[in-house]
Amino acid sequence: MPDVHFTNLFAVALVALVAPLLLGLVPALRIPAVVLEIVVGIALGPHALGLVDVDLPVQIVALLGLGFLLFLAGLEIDVHRLRGRVLRMALLGYLITLALGGLAGAGFSAAGWVHSPYLLAVTLSATSLGLVVPVLKDAGQVDGQVGQSTIAAASIADFAAVLVLSLLFSTEGGSAGERLVMVALFAILVAVAGFAVSTAGRSQRIGAALVRLQDTTAEIRVRAAVVLLVAFVALAERFGLETILGAFLAGAVVGLVDRDSTSHPQFRVKLAALGYGFLIPVFFVTSGLRLDLGGLLADPTALLRVPLFLVALLVARGVPAYLSIRTLGPRATSAVALLQATSLPFIVTATQIGVTTGLMSAVTAAALTCAGLVSVLIFPAAALVLLKPANRPPAGAGQELAHKPSGRSEGDRDNG
Predict the structure, then answer these.
(1) Other CB atoms closer than 10 Å to residue 21's CB: what's the count?
(2) Is the Cβ–Cβ distance between 316 and 104 less than 8 Å?
(3) CA 404, 26, 410, 230 torsion-angle sign
(4) In a 3-state reduction of DSSP, which class is residue 172?
(5) How far apart are CA 320 and CA 194, in angstroms?
(6) How far apart are CA 43 and CA 65, in angstroms?
(7) Structural domains present in the chain
(8) Across 19-28, 99-108, 137-146, 158-167, least confident range
(9) What are phi and psi of 260, to 5 degrees?
């Protein structure tokens, strides 16, 4: 047996258990579980108390957690709703986001805070779809104009951010032109795989076998989804692309072919249980363990970056929402802007890539991650306040649900 110990993994798993349990026992603490997981990870990590280290077992499970997080984010995308004016506005909004993010990146680069303004622009360009959807459900807006506009914008932002990050800032090396060719070839193989999976699913013989085995110890649909996830991740790696692109597209393919779930209503629940029950929380706690908050707190000028990055995130993702102000009205548009500016998992991923490639300092990565934490804490709650009066729910009806987006956000449910 290799000299491998699981003490640190046990500590991480314990934090993943205690964080949501504490929030459930103390409802007054209306914060997302993912925020508490990262904060506790920071406190226990080598840059603070030094009680827990990121050793090999923790690294492996955290990497699987990142893959599953992107897989479930891709699974959330409803391709059939991305059409017409909604799609055009989402694409235009993302282009505006990149332009505004580029301006912010140029300013922060001139101040010496970032090494690559383009990486900062991409880092600021995603939305946490896994948090946005529960908030919209809570407000009763998920199927209305507000919900459709927000979900479309978040879906495009998540997909485009993962694609651009993989294309321009991959840690696998190679020029941007070479990676563009690789992305095209990879997309063709993904399309072929999606067609093959869809065709196999329509076979009566295979379909009958899937139904017979799906709720036995074989858990055949879950195993098939995991195989597709690992295959796409391995394929992306072989093509010199970021593995997160493979994980994200695997989820999108599963979501696209899994349109009729009447014969397997528990399939997505089981995937969520595997991801959010174990793998994904380990990724978030580990992200906290790696975060050098001490370096951020040691320098007041470095700490100043957090609110400025938060404002940059709000401007870059929020301003494009006002393209629809004439359709949605000022109050609903402001809520959409706040929801679109809610981001954390992608920020964590992008900053880790930035530090690995030397395009971002550890202090800047910590400041951006803290800005993402603050966005998850305040933006959805503020958006819910703006949306609820328009629906006029019964008094007290939102009290229990108001905590749901926090409890189910990225670390309990997210999501780009």
Answers:
(1) 11
(2) yes
(3) negative
(4) coil
(5) 32
(6) 21
(7) 7-392 (1.20.1530.20)
(8) 137-146
(9) -110, 105
